[in-house]
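Budget justification note: compute hours in this period were largely spent on complex prediction jobs such as the one shown. Inputs:
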Amino acid sequence: MSKEHQPGMSLIVRTITRLTVGLIVLYGIYIVSHGHVSPGGGFAGGVIIALSFVHLMLAYGKDLALQKLPKGVSSFFESMGAILFLSLALLGFTGGYFFLNFISKGQPFRLFSAGIIPLANIAISLKVGAGLFAIFIALVILKFESEK
Amino acid sequence: MIELYILLIFMIVGAIIAVEVKDLLSSVVAVGAVGLGLSMTFLILKAPDVAITQLVVELLALIILIRATIKRDLPFSTSGRWYVNTFITGAFIFMFVLLGLICLKDLPPFGYPLMRVASTYLREGLAKTGATNLVASVILDYRAFDTLGEATILFTAVIGVLAVVRRQGRKGEDEIVDEDDD
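Corresponding output:
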């Protein structure tokens, strides 16, 4: 394959992307999972995870990123996050009211503590990350279409 | 407190540059500088949650803006009705500053909020929710309804964007529908 037909950016950018994109995803997962003990949370972590895929798309072109996370899968994750968050809220009715923190609180500063808050963080991160990536896909595909 | 004022002046200058500069890419970069200044302001005001969110959302918005605006030829109209526009802008700024001065007198001093409920959250948040990050305990336990509404807004926004910028428009009856929509 010659250089002109390679989608995406130059060799330097692609190499750096290959080395860093996994670390970015890991950092996003860390921010999400420690959202209840340290600064961060579902929204910020979800956006970081979405940014890692955006990074991949900018460096390698849209085909590889869409192969890693197709549009249907991101749409599925977005709906899944919304349903998970709502069902967590509805499960509160087992103990009394909407959004009841029905799991035991545990010890402070531990990873598994604070009841439903980590689960809600994960749900929101799925929703936000997949939703923002879907918006980015839609805008990029629109741009490619308009340039043709 | 002096670094806060330096950052605020930096942000105001960046915003003015973003409005005034002719080149679209320079304008987007200036907006990014304003966002970075805002993120650092949040850090100085000891709100790391908001600073992280501001930084990452700013990055994503910047990437989308650059992808969307570069190579796009936007007409820039400066001619016509200059006096009227300047007069309206000046009158609006004057009214804004006047009403702002009246309103700002009634605000509580910086760092001393009026809300009594916030101090209750600070005292009882850890015991009631078990989360050491109080921001998480507020947005996901005390005020989880707000988060549900925010999630609904984002969901609606995604649906709206996907509906507006989808690849294929609705075809007429006699046209051949191309089944290329993935």
